[in-house]
Specification:
alpha/beta, Aspartate Aminotransferase, domain 1, Aspartate Aminotransferase, domain 2, 2 domains, 7-stranded mixed sheet, two-stranded parallel sheet, 14 helices, 11 strands, 12% strand, binds (2S)-2-hydroxybutanedioic acid
């Protein structure tokens, strides 16, 4: 091979730790196969439906659309206003965001292609504005965090998210990592519904974390992809409010993939909160320049759906009801699975009830996961991350029996 070719390196990149598994599931010909890998909501029949509020919003958009003109680099104002309200609404706010950070002009947003685009933009901003800064992630985390930090050419630091028995949030470990970091380093936090463990800090712990972050001069990047699927739309931004209360500069990556079921529309946002309104403007100008070289300006259709729904009281109410129904069904599946695992003789899974949101770790080895796939056609992510939102009353006993069987195989 000559040096002039792109393929000189010749070594293939690894398959994606989540979508690679989904590809294997798609290729599986067994009719009883079960995809509990990617974090997507499925109804009782196994479909990921388009909610009625989305269909109605799309009908209205189609009827009113006249052009496919470019959006501004940071996105359309109606979408950005809608997401700002969603993220910065406080307990007591019916709609609209009364948080002082918003009132003081310290908050600006950009529409990004999904939460992934927002995370990449956030880490790129850190790389550009704080050369030499390192980005810290608590392990285990969403595997794409590692790839995003790597792609932004930033040094990655790791700390343990869970205590050594893998049962609880390791607050002292995180506080020690905050103390070990240097000023200007960034920490990625999961705003709610930690992916993959489902284990979040309490509101009091978030306050302690935020205060330490402020004392140490660190930059929080809050990845919030599951707002409304944990404890509710406003409760799920308690982490964000804890950081805001300290006055630190922060970045918030949000996603409409799960809570609006807009997975393939790639709808997300990066909220930038600067120390002052002037600082926010400067940060936003850098964000726009980065965007211009990556996706130039965002795809508008998905954002228009979100803006249409959140801008109309009736549609917003309908969507909130649909979201709450999803949240409750995921919670019910979590309880059903825990009970079924116990009934199947698998010990030690009562801890699943401590988790919230779509995911929990079953703590399975690669060999056990391979057996689940090969013998039972059940697909999970590494360490046995299970998507509770993909379960149904019919699937739960099948999954529980299969898990109990591979655990009894003795290779745990
Ligand atoms: C997941 O963790 O399964 C989802 O966030 C989908 C993704 O982009 O990885």
């Amino acid at each position: 091979m000559s040096d002039g070719t792109l393929s000189t390196r010749q070594v293939a990149a690894p398959v994606d730790p989540i979508f690679g598994i989904v590809d294997a599931y798609r290729a599986d010909q067994r009719p009883h196969k079960m995809n509990l890998a990617a974090g997507v909501y499925m109804d009782e029949t196994g479909l990921t439906p388009i909610p009625a509020s989305i269909r109605e919003a799309e009908r209205r958009i189609l009827a009113a659309s006249t052009s496919k003109l470019y959006a501004p680099i940071s996105g359309e104002g109606a979408y950005l206003d809608a997401v700002r309200n969603l993220l910065f609404r406080q307990p007591g706010d019916v709609w609209g965001a009364t948080h002082p950070a918003v009132a003081d002009g310290r908050v600006t947003l950009l529409h990004t292609p999904g939460g992934t685009g927002a995370m990449r933009l956030a880490v790129d901003l850190v790389a550009r504005l704080r050369p030499g800064a390192e980005v810290w992630v608590g392990e285990p985390t969403w595997p794409n965090h590692f790839q995003i930090v790597d792609a932004a050419r930033v040094n990655l630091r790791r700390f343990a998210w869970l205590t050594t028995n893998q049962q609880a949030f390791d607050e002292s470990g995180l506080l020690a990592a905050l103390d070990a970091a240097k000023a200007g380093d960034a920490f990625i936090f999961h705003g709610t519904c930690h992916n993959p463990t489902g284990i979040d800090p309490t509101a009091t712990q978030w306050q302690q974390i935020a205060e330490r972050v402020e004392q140490r001069g660190l930059i929080p990047i809050i990845d919030t992809a599951y707002q409304g699927l944990g404890d509710g739309l406003i409760a799920d931004t308690a982490s964000l409010r804890a950081f805001l209360a300290t006055g630190v500069e922060l970045l918030v990556a949000s996603s409409a993939s799960k809570n609006f079921s807009l997975y393939n529309e790639r709808v997300g946002a990066l909220a930038i909160v600067g120390a002052t309104g002037a600082a926010t403007s400067i940060l936003a100008s850098h964000a726009r320049q980065i965007v211009r070289t990556m996706w130039s300006n965002p795809p508008v259709h998905g954002g228009a759906i979100v803006a249409t729904i959140l801008g109309d009281t009736q549609l917003r109410t309908q969507w909130e009801e649909e979201l709450e129904a999803m949240r409750l069904r995921i919670l019910a599946s979590r309880h059903e699975l825990t009970a079924a695992l116990a009934a199947a003789g698998a010990q030690g899974f009562a801890r699943l009830l401590e988790g919230r949101g779509m995911f929990s770790l079953l703590g399975l080895t690669d060999a056990q996961l391979a057996r689940l796939r090969d013998e039972h056609a059940i697909y999970l992510v590494a360490q046995g991350r299970i998507n509770m939102a993909g379960l149904s009353p019919a699937k739960v006993p099948v999954v529980a029996q299969a898990v109990a069987q591979v655990l009894a195989g003795g290779d745990r």
